[in-house]
Amino acid sequence: MSAVLDVRDLAVAYETRRGRVVAVDGIDIRIEPGEAVALVGETGSGKTTAALASIGLLPRGAVRLRGSVRLGAQDITGWSPRRLERILGRDVGLVPQDPAASLDPLKTVGWQIGEVLRIHGERDRGRIAREVQGLLERVGLADTARIAHSYPHELSGGQRQRVLIAGAIALRPGLIVADESTSALDVTVQRTVLDLLDDLRRADRSGLLFVTHDLAVAAERADRIIVLEGGIVQDAGDVRAVLGGAGGHRAAPYTQRLIANAPALQPARFREAPPTSGEPPAIEVAGLAKVFTGHRGRPDVPALEGVSFAVPRGTTHAIVGESGSGKSTVARIALGFETASAGSVRVAGTDVSGPDGSGLRGADLRRFRRRVQLVYQSPYASLNPSLSILDTVAEPLRRFGGLSRRQARREAGELLERVALAATLHDRRPRELSGGQRQRVAIARALAPRPEVLVLDEPVSALDVTVQAQILTLLDDLQREFGLTYLFISHDLAVVRQISDTVTVLAHGRVEETGTTRDVFERPQSAYTVALLDAIPVPSLPPAPVPAIIGDHA
Amino acid sequence: MTALAPAPLRGDLTDVVGGPAGRDSSPAPAPEPAARRRRRSRVSPTLLLSSAVLLLVVAWAVAPALFAPSSAYAQVAGALQSPSLAHPFGTDSVGRDQLARVIFGARESLLGAAIAVSVGLVVGVLLGAVAASVGGVADAIVMRVVDVLLAIPGLLLALTVVVLLGTGTANAALAVGVGSIAGFARLTRSEVVQVRRTEYVEAAYGSGGTFLSVLFGHILPNSLRPVLALLALQFGGAILALSTLGFLGYGVTPPDPEWGMIIAQGRNLLGAAWWVTAFPGFVLLIVVLATNRLSQAIGARR
Q: End-to-end CA distance of chain B, in Å?
């Protein structure tokens, strides 16, 4: 049987004001029926452009420079968008990254799945309805009649992603393209969605091209892998060969760096248990509860209940949980941005509930904030776009330290140097920096008042793996240098395993488990923790040179 | 009022599964050093032309004598002469040079408009910023007052103020300015409310900021661009509103030149001497269009 996709020497460039920028420079992709190929790369590597161009779709402003594309038996090289409409959905299905943005909020999801059938000629309403129900069932959704009549906002992220998959497979296309389809999902949900894509591919013997930044996911799910950097193929071949060195394959230096920086691909290596000193802990949380009062007749929402943990000075404590687990609420209470409903929280020797129990105010609050600083998840949203980075870092020095403008700027310069940002960058605005550089600025700003405790709210989850590794190393160095205590909020267990001493697992506002990282990871006590740990992609890399999907060829 | 980006309404499964949806992908923004030099986009010709028009008119207002062929009051020729090389805009009913009247009139119009928008800007931004950042009852009271102001037709409001204060340039300008307060207050409030919720504002409090330092250091600088766009738009509107007041006889006292009044004087002669009304009207039109174009350019540079 012939390949479902055969792309040869494809090159794509973007027309910009400053001339042509080559985004993809000569990529070959060949996918056999039932095979999964991963396209891996970091931000700006051209992986999405390559994936879309290989099914004929060129993003706005993009032009194909050379190369040919065969989809199944058809050569679709250079087809117009109109002509492509006939095969899109029928011969190839696309599962996009963001289910929230890809579904029409004004139409039921059943209608939207049916749309694919209508476009490709189905007129019979009854048949469409039955077909939609069958598709929803196939993607593992229960209560399909209700789901079909739901609007996107009534479904969870995982359900929405399943709906999109249902739309993509409606006409049993020979090829499914998944563009970072699971990156926005919680780990446990991500696992089930990936399982679903695997099952569908095997059942229909369709090819799967998936685009991901996550090397571990690629290693676990793909038969073959293509590593892109700057639009150029750095490595391509069997997953075991490229990532595991099977068959004497020597990975390209870039691939090696990616592997070294992917926490999930590294052997578990725990920090040594912190020495127990006589000092009182830097953070002490006991019986913490938080209820968000409902407004205008809506019911109260309990966010946290009976949360307790303690963090010794100079160590890192991770709070792990999926979205909605309450992990960010713990962080915000510890920072004094939110008040607790019950229980006690002492951070850096201060009771954050304040003298009268209603939270810190005025001068007390400012004294407290000087000792406890926060690094936000998104370095894009947490920096004032109209301030230069030097002024951003100088601000806390002036406000807290009472330094003059000149002194503050000089010290800010030193701090920026400490986080490896050169003096030539001082006058830049945040938008003129990369994500990693911005996060360094945010870290420098947080360090400026010489805090005792740093709360890190998913500080690396918006960053590429190589940048992520650099930031984690920086945080590690800074901790030792300044004796900082970290409260590290994260959903990424592989990262947590690497950097934290102790960990608390949170689910639905309750503590599932708390203890040293080694204990929790090696001897998990609760079923939920086990499920979370299972969701870390485990690449079945060498030694296992078993031919990939032989069983399915029968 | 604000351009809150709505969730994409088109983008149903068809786009996703099929059609070549306009996906912008990764390589678009180059956040690295290249972006340093603020990219010089080609300036559009209409923007260039608008700026030139406004510069010229401001120059007229600052130093009319440099541009005008004669004084605005002197009788230089016979009455109602049609446009000629000596008098490009023709002459009016008492033989004054129309071009000179228009050039000298720029001062009244621009000065008045500047006063008007300053009043609107200062009072409006202050009200909007306070309402948004204090919130609660103060917000409710301020915004209800603004609602009431918005409900009164602008011209009616202006006429009322002029009748109360008496005619004259300053009073007319004040009257027009009062009418624009509501718009500025509304826009500022909505912008501030939006910026106030951002993480960098919270981070500023975390960096030891006080209410006022955060308001002036972080919130207002990031909220004012649309307000500046409105400012340019209102400037054109104020010129127009002042001319309306002048036309109705509530502006300057004759024989001082003012565009609205000049137009009014030609109104009865339209059949015989079209140029008396047409040329000042045309200049007014061009200037207002130019301010609108400028406003659009400011607003677009987000």
A: 16
